[in-house]
Specification:
The complex is a heterodimer. Chain A has twelve helices and no strands. By secondary structure, chain A is mainly alpha-helical. The two termini of chain A are 25 Å apart. Chain B has a six-stranded mixed beta sheet with strand order 6-7-8-3-9-10, with helices on both faces. In chain B, strands 11, 12, 13, 14, 18 and 21 form a six-stranded antiparallel beta sheet that branches. Classes of the chains: A mainly alpha, B alpha+beta. At the A-B interface, helix 7 and helix 8 of A face strand 6 and helix 2 of B.
Chain lengths: 273, 381
């Protein structure tokens, strides 16, 4: 291996540090906003030597039904994730093991579905949900998010299963498994890190999704992401309260990412040539 | 235990490629059958057809006399060892070995007992709780063997199981597998491209090329009596030397002329009679060339040393033969590469001799060690 000079290491670390600071600044801003007294939120230059207060957290429970918002966010994310995986994982496997020369084309076609601008599908989908009476329910958001995420999961699992040697499943077949048994007992456990990465992506996409729940849910079924952005300017809601509310919207994702970080990177880079 | 038979079996793929053509092969109960050939010769496809992992395009596969073409792999009770070992990465060694038993619904106690016994046999007892990723290549190979052994299947199928091991370990495992097979007396089909494995392990060896069976025989017979040029060139290391020759007579005795050299045809005399004045290919194995003092005469080949490879006990000498035409011994996949290289005669001689490039050496050829092939068909005379 080539020798790495001390200067090079220093330059690399400085670059990493700078990038980290740039990435973390908005987060620090968001967090500090929640603990700053109202009059210091917009002080220029921004100050970090303020007297922290929990007033904003007390306020938001008065302004928002935080439990209901959280419940909606969880229901939409969990529903989307479960459905996307139930459909996407077998679909990705089937494509990966298909002998058809069109399999790869199909997989990329699925990825393209994820690239359709959300706004383009919103209106027809809105009308469909209205006609079948699901408009305003969690289901409306779960279904459209599943459509998009399942396509993404299919593509990601396709890449993942393609990278898994077929031998293992064939060994399972000769060991006495059925094709389905080989899938569940061997292929799925072997692709565990890919599946966990998919879970993370799905949860992130649907937890942070704003556009669809904004138009497809009602006051009772709206999730945190919608409440956050629509609250400002109504009642007596300040940036401080939004900062506090934003804690609930970011912390679960950050925690998940922290705990599952290694699967995330492994899964996201595996099989992607 | 099982008897396995191929009856006119074909395997062709979409696009017209035929991997196996008209294969007829009977594997006896308890036999260790080796399928050998260069890559792409159809040996692995044939093995996978026995396992049920590959559809059969034509013909019949019989297991114990019954048609098995459409049986699912799980219904054949056949265990397979893969080239990649195909261990389940998420399961411990014990669970890997016991997987097939668990799938077949055996009780936990029985599984534990069987896994333990198999692990002892393969010296894996200390590693039972480890995951495959934490094992060495040799240990993984043994786990793959254990997974096959534990089930007491009708037959073992092994697809180049030693090709990922280093040379020393390969030699050791070669003997080990042969011993295990003799001990269990389970019908075994072993695929390899390594002719040392083919020669040392099997009761019989099926040599395949381009999807077709070339010769099915004992290792000894393959070496001594190859039926065609392909088998002669594939079996034997270093490979056999081929010369262009012309059958003739000297003083009434049949001989074969290689350029300016003349070799007597002892045992071939009767068969060679019909080839009088016709071109043949003469095969002489490197180990059949014996150094001699005589520089010319009947049964002598003289050549100039091009280079010498010292193998320790022996010297592998490559020689330029100007007075006769050498024919390249080609083996399918290497054909193009070999055409570019000038053919040289190879001889194995005693390692203690001092031979240097440029030396002219004379070799005596034992008439019994000569192989003759029809120049047009490539078949042995």
């Amino acid at each position: 291996m080539a020798q790495v000079s001390g200067r090079q290491v220093f330059a690399e670390r400085t670059a990493v540090l700078l990038i980290t600071i740039v990435m973390l600044l908005p987060v620090v801003w968001l967090i500090t906003t929640a603990y700053k007294p109202s009059n210091q939120i917009f002080s220029i230059p921004p100050r970090l030597d303020f007297q922290p207060t929990l007033d904003q957290f007390r306020n938001i429970f008065g302004y928002f039904d935080v439990v209901s918002l959280l419940r909606s966010s969880v229901a939409i994310s969990a529903g989307t994730t479960v459905l996307s995986l139930l459909l996407g994982v077998p679909c990705g496997y089937a494509l990966a093991r298909s002998r058809s020369r069109y399999a790869t084309g199909f997989a990329y076609f699925f990825l393209a579905i994820r690239m359709v601008p959300a706004i383009a599908s919103l209106i027809p989908f809105y009308l469909m949900m209205r006609d079948i009476g699901l408009l305003g329910s969690w289901w409306a958001v779960v279904i459209i998010n599943t459509m998009l995420n399942c396509a993404f999961v299919t593509w990601m699992m396709f890449s993942y299963f393609r990278a898994l040697p077929r031998d293992m499943e064939e060994a399972a077949l000769t060991d006495g498994c059925t094709q389905l048994g080989a899938f569940f007992k061997v292929a799925v456990p072997a692709a565990r890190s890919g599946i966990i990465a998919c879970v993370l992506f799905c949860v992130m996409f649907s937890w942070n999704d704003f556009l669809y729940p904004m138009f497809l849910t009602t006051l009772d079924s709206k999730p945190l992401s919608v409440a956050l952005l629509t609250a400002y300017g109504t009642k007596d809601i300040t940036w401080g309260s939004l900062g506090a509310l934003a804690h609930f919207s970011t912390i679960p994702i950050v925690l998940m990412a922290l705990f599952l970080n290694r699967y995330f990177v492994q899964g996201a880079t595996n099989g992607v040539q | 235990m099982a008897q396995i038979s191929f009856r006119n079996v074909f395997k062709s793929y979409e696009g017209g490629h035929t991997a196996v053509r008209d294969l007829n092969l009977d594997i006896a109960d308890g036999e260790f059958m080796v399928l050998v050939g260069p890559s792409g010769c159809g040996k692995t496809t044939a093995l996978r057809m026995i396992a049920g992992l590959e559809d059969i395009s034509g013909g019949e596969l019989l297991i114990n006399g019954e048609r098995a073409n459409d049986l699912a792999p799980r219904d054949r009770n056949i265990a397979m060892v893969f080239q990649s070992y195909a261990l389940y990465p998420h399961l411990s060694v014990a669970d890997n070995i016991g997987f097939g038993l668990k799938v077949r619904g055996m009780s936990r106690d029985e599984i534990t007992a069987k896994v333990k016994k198999t692990a002892e046999l393969l010296e894996l007892t200390d590693y039972l709780e480890r995951k495959p990723a934490k094992l060495s290549g040799g240990q993984r190979q043994r786990v793959a063997m254990g997974r096959a052994l534990v089930r007491s299947p009708n037959a073992f199928l092994m697809d180049e199981p030693l090709s990922n091991l280093d040379a020393r370990l390969r030699g050791q495992m070669r003997a080990e597998i042969a011993k295990l097979q003799r001990m269990s007396a389970v019908t075994t089909v072993y695929v390899t491209h390594d002719q040392v494995e083919a020669m040392t392990m099997g009761h019989r060896v099926a040599v395949m090329n381009k999807g077709a069976l070339q010769q099915l025989d004992t290792p000894r017979n393959l070496y001594d009596h190859p039926v065609n040029l392909f088998v002669a060139s594939f079996i034997g290391s270093p490979p056999i030397n081929f010369f262009e020759g012309m059958v003739g007579q000297v003083d009434g005795a049949p001989v074969v002329k290689l350029g300016s050299f003349t070799l007597p045809l002892g045992a071939f005399a009767a068969r060679a009679a019909t080839y009088h004045d016709r071109k043949v290919i003469v095969g002489i194995r490197p180990e059949a060339l014996k150094l001699t003092e005589a520089t010319e005469g009947m049964g002598i080949i003289a050549a100039r040393t091009a280079f010498v490879e010292d193998l320790g006990a022996t010297l592998l000498v490559q020689l330029d033969v100007d007075a006769a035409n050498l024919v390249q011994a080609s083996v399918a996949e290497e054909e193009d590469d070999l055409k570019a290289i000038r053919p040289r005669m190879r001889a194995m001689i005693d390692g203690v001799l001092a031979i240097a490039p440029g030396d002219v050496l004379s070799f005596a050829v034992d008439p019994a060690a000569i192989h003759l092939f029809d120049a047009d068909t490539g078949m042995a005379l």
